[in-house]
Amino acid sequence: MERDIICLGCPNGCHLSATWTSTEDLHVVGAQCERGEAYACDEIFEPKRVVTAVVRTTCSDIPCVPVKTGAPLLKSLITPLLRELYRIEVSLPVHTGQVLLRNFEDTGVNVVFTWSASG
Questions:
Q1: pTM of the prediction?
Q2: Per-residue b or e along 31-57, where b marks 16 or more CB atoms closer than 10 Å to that residue's CB
Q3: For the chain, what are the domain ranges?
Q4: 52-113, what's its fold?
């Protein structure tokens, strides 16, 4: 199989060309640093993303506050995470970096507030 990827592993944004027949037989061309091959491998076989969202609050003046995952999460878990986040309603105050959800689905990924708010 073949796939072109723009690497997000560092600021270079290398245009990678990956070919593979199995997880053990991956060839990556175009990486300007050592992160490129690892990024391509992850993107092809186990893609992950940092997720940003908002959660509702009990405060009418500040109806929602932003959150994000503290680390990239498997793409297959994004929809279950968003479903859970959109069911949550938090009481203020909250603080930047405060953990809302710890170790989502036993992945080791936390969801944290990205904004401080007091009601």
A1: 0.84
A2: beeeebbebbeebbeeebeebebebeb
A3: 2-46, 52-113
A4: CPE0013-like fold (3.10.530)
